[in-house]
Amino acid sequence: MSSWILLCAALTALVIAGLFGFWLIPFLRKIHFGQTILEEGPAWHKSKQGTPIMGGFLFIAGSLIGTLVGYIAWRMTVATDFNTADEIRTGGLRLLAVVLFSLLYSGACGFTDDYIKAVKKQNLGLKPKQKIAFQVVFCAAFLAILYLLGDHDTTLDLIFVKLNIGIFYYPVMMLFLIYVINVVNLTDGIDGLCGSVTVVSMLVLTILCAVLSFKELSLYAITIAGGCIGFLFWNFHPAKCFMGDTGSMYLGGAFAAIGVACRMHLLLVLVGIVYILDGLSVVIQVLYFKYTKKKYGEGRRIFKMSPIHHHFELCKWSEYKIVLVFSLFGLAFGGIALATQLL
Q: Quick check: pTM over 0.70?
């Protein structure tokens, strides 16, 4: 796919996301769709009480329109013959499956969660069992659609070794999808963090998709990056809006689905290392707390607070510094992922 099409699609997403905020944010304030801050969070987060949520609609709208514009432009410039018609059709259907998965995941898990928080003024949203039920259904459906589109390979790509695990591939991928999506959601904890890290990860995915000949998915990845840049105009500290679960579930769904559809298994871990480690810090904290409580009768913690970005907050790092360091860390590992494919 031509670089000018990718650039135009990304700019379209950026402009739409940025301009849409001038209407959406006042509207969210008007209907009182604001964030409820947890009591156990950092004390200075109390000042963010009432900040509009569901700002994720900014980059959702931007990425969808940008993808549509880019895809139409690409199809108009590509001459289709009998040899490429099936390839283009399969690529288009794969793109549609990834987009719908991101949207439905965002709508069912994210929007519903945000709506409960906004209306009932509770920070908990959907119950864990409800979230898991939604996630299992959508992830199973997505894997089934990929199978119908011809992806019957049950091999895990670990970059330097490929491991065929047969029928176990599907439950493993389902758990992988669910974990990745949820850790992206966890990263949305301070102003600008999830959006900035996602800009980096999606730009890396754009290049990887192009290298692996998944042209349509490279288009979708770069429009999400563009949409997130437009969103960050409203989300950098001090944030005028939060993406909410509506946005973070959309980003998580898109990131995980693009990776699995392109069969980037270990690559996706490298590209999304910030998400992975942020989520892993929660697991480590909980397990260590339970272990020490059982052994000593008193729960102890490794981090001052999890996810780990809150630990650095409590270590007096500014939100700007956390966003910069985490984004650069993600860029470094994204570079390693690119090197495995380009060198």
A: yes
Report the C-alpha gap between 212 and 256 in whole angstroms: 16
3-state DSSP call for residue 34? strand
Bridge partners for 162 per DSSP: 157
CA distance linking residue 220 with residue 223, whole number of Å = 5
What the block records as the tokens of 100 is 């719908």
Q: How far is CA 220 from CA 27, 226, 291, 301, in A?
A: 28, 10, 43, 40
Q: What pLDDT tens digit does each residue of the chain (343 aa) get?
A: 788 999 999 999 999 999 999 999 999 888 877 666 555 556 555 556 668 888 999 999 999 999 999 999 998 887 555 456 777 788 899 999 999 999 988 878 888 888 887 776 655 667 778 888 888 999 999 999 999 999 999 999 998 899 999 999 999 999 999 999 999 999 998 999 999 999 999 999 999 999 998 999 999 999 999 999 999 999 998 889 999 899 999 999 999 999 999 999 999 999 999 999 999 999 999 999 999 999 888 889 999 999 999 999 999 999 999 999 999 999 999 999 999 998 7
